[in-house]
Structures
1.
Amino acid sequence: MKRLIDQLRDNHQLSPDGYWTLLTMHHPDDVEYLMLQAREVAQRQFGKSIYLRGLIELTNVCRNDCLYCGIRRGNTHVTRYTLTREQVIESCAQGYRIGFRTFVLQGGEWGEERSAWIAEIITEIRQRWPDCAITLSLGEHPRDTYALWRNAGADRYLLRHETHNERHYSLLHPQGMTIRHRLQCLDWLKELDYQVGTGIMVGSPFQSLKSLVEDIQYLIEFKPHMIGIGPFIPQHDTPFARFPAGSVEMTARLYAILRLALPHALIPSTTAMATLSPTGRLHGILAGANVVMPNLSPVDNREKYALYDNKAALGAESAQGVQLLSDELATIGYKIDWSRGDHPDKN
Ligand code: SAH
């Protein structure tokens, strides 16, 4: 098993069978060896330092109806909100004072009639804080809209592919949404010179090991700058309310495999990891993750952005709680890196 792990570390890829073997191995010594290699590769790239991104949840209004997501259009129990431009700017200002140099605007998916308004906000953030990176995570849009936002000053875009398997994708999404179109969006974003992030949920309903292997292969081929992976967590008002949550261990194992395959990638230890386990965030970092994305939204809105149940948004998961995060990182010998944290190839 160690030979296989060394091979992934040295050649950055394996056969599909090799990934399968790493996903199913169960001897604790083998798993620990994988984690150790991933951690060492991450430390060689980034030191024992963790980049921060301030997450601003722009809106929970969404035209989509993804079956896993708590803010899907069909969920009538959500109190919908959209931050004002002033609220977004105030969140950035607060984040900047704390030390954040990346702002992530995430939200439900809107129609194109509001794309110009988003462009205005991007322009204002870009003018006020020219030293900060602006990341968007606003779903699928036409190429022209992505170009508009890029020209307004956005640097990065997060759009998880969720699953590369066509049939699995159709079981997670409403009719009309296709993996083909999602991958088209990701290609456009790359063409437009965004730093692009993609990824999956681990343990989403109907996921198989075979589809996880496909996801690994796609990620290695696409080479995203960022890889966002978190465990699936059910939300009580969605069609998937009764499905079990994904596992922290399996998610960490994917971080480790992808760290060895893509040593330069920015890999967050996601909020869903911290939600499922008090040690989830550290577990992810010890598997080779190197980014944390604390919540920078106005505190009153956080509970309305409930993608899944019990979503962590306070304490070390909150921008205002960075001291707690810093203390937590110190317990494993890590510290915060306050720089913009671009992908190494962009420097
Ligand atoms: N509307 C944007 C942002 C979505 S929220 C978009 O579609 O890209 C960001 C991510 O949260 C999604 O890509 C999805 O992978 C994750 N997510 C949504 N519901 C979830 C759930 N129930 N459990 C875990 N992660 C979830």
2.
Amino acid sequence: MAKPKSVYTCTECGGQSPKWQGQCPHCDAWNTLVESVVEPGKGAGANRFASLGGAGEVVTLSEVEAKDFPRMPTLIGEFDRVLGGGMVEGGVVLIGGDPGIGKSTLLLQAAARLAEQGGVLYVTGEESAQQVALRARRLEVNASKIRLLPEIELEKVQATIASLKPRVAVIDSIQTLYSSALTSAPGSVAQVRECAAQLTRVAKQSGTAIVFVGHVTKEGALAGPRVLEHMVDTVLYFEGDTHTSFRLIRAFKNRFGAVNEMGVFAMTEKGLREVTNPSALFLSHHRADVPGSCVMVTQEGTRPLLVELQALVDEAHSPQPRRLTVGLEQNRLAMLLAVLHRHAGIALFDQDVFVNAVGGVRIAEPGADLAVTLAIVSSLRNKALPAKHVVFGEVGLAGEVRPVQRGQERLREAAKLGFTHAIVPTANKPRQRIEGIEVIAVDRLSDAVDR
Ligand code: TYD
Ligand code: MG
């Protein structure tokens, strides 16, 4: 068989050249050329994205039969929650996360459960068969029905899927696979993209659900190819502080379910155990009230969650004071400090400011703004917020406090966990009293700071 020809495509302008160069000859961008395969008879674009549908006939949308996708539940409740009810036939899932966070552990546990219902193929490129067997023994899962393939060559993996026809195939990890059609090294953007594209096509054609494990780089992106995120149906990220035992899985994209759902696990010596009631997990457990700490209620998918935010304000010793966040967005902090200065008269230009979300949780919603600012003010004045208070609300550039979604549910959850007061945006004040919690409504950031 003739070796398929490869071309180099620019990731910026899409221009192609027959050999690799440092600079794209079309748009003059540097280091953007990535190798890809040209398949005979197809344009270079044809193999880039595998499409769901068959070849194109025009139909009327209302005449297309809308079937529900048959689900294959993993029977691990928290995992099914983020998947939207289980794996989907022909669906492709990408699970990203730091090394050592528990991706292989979770997938082996899920594979064992899935294997009870149908064929499961576990392709391991990172670990030997013995290592996987050791893990299975340690996890005490039923390994008798899992088919294991230690392999890193894409073509062999494809052939195995074609002959075994499993219902679910796990690829651990996509970065270790390589296609012999390309000359670039395994783990390079070109290889990862090509392997993922080929396997996605296999999934759509054969109905096998495929799970890719992907590594995350130090910068926090899935190593190399963001393009993977466009190809797959579902993108899940594992997060959590590796120093604590809690692990979160979050859906960032899901063509078969809701995003922003979150699954919570605890890492034990027998693998990942589900945490079904996680709302009090992210509170630190110090007894005395300390300055710089503020508890907020965030909403993750359908589930409210209490998280403690901590701030430390300290005199800066350099002309460029530091603004650092862990678990929150850094730019948002700079914005909140400007709002604090302009609309509440609190200047922090000569102070270092550090903000941390306890327990390694990441909060992306702006509903954390009010709690962040109050924690900062509390640390600056060295005055603890009153005990048993929760806070939520978005802060706008004009110094106003804006409502958040599902305020009532957040308040109910706080009341359930024994909080007695809540500082919330006026529009989130419930019309009916919620048992056990007194609601303090604020319109402006300065009102909240005064209180
Ligand atoms: P692993 O699933 O190998 O991580 P990944 O595939 O994401 O790189 O998880 C490895 C970590 O989990 C390792 O540090 C040990 C820990 N672990 C446990 O604490 N208990 C267990 O039962 C297992 C299998 C692993
Ligand atoms: Mg692993």
